[in-house]
Write a structure and sequence with these properties.
78 residues; Pemi-like Protein 1, Chain: D
Length: 78
């Protein structure tokens, strides 16, 4: 996909709608710019919440694990 946009006198560009939809970009999203060789690479910044949602579920809940560790510590069990 090759799309074009014009840089304004303020240094701004408009990302074409097709590109925004393809990349899942919405108003307010943050993008990251990288220069790789002679290319400008733009990617959507992923939130920490998005990252954690991609992880597989843990076999225990943090609350249960913390409670078990606290009980062991109080009872003197290591």
């Amino acid at each position: 996909m090759q799309l074009t946009s014009t840089v304004t006198n303020k240094g701004q560009i408009t990302l074409p709608l097709r590109l925004r939809k393809n990349m899942g970009l919405e108003s307010g999203d943050t993008v990251i710019f990288n220069i790789e060789d002679d290319h400008l690479v733009i990617r959507k910044e992923k939130s920490i919440e998005t990252f954690f949602n991609t992880l597989p579920p843990l076999p225990f809940s943090f609350k249960e694990k913390i409670d078990e560790e606290m009980i062991s510590e109080i009872m003197g069990n290591e």
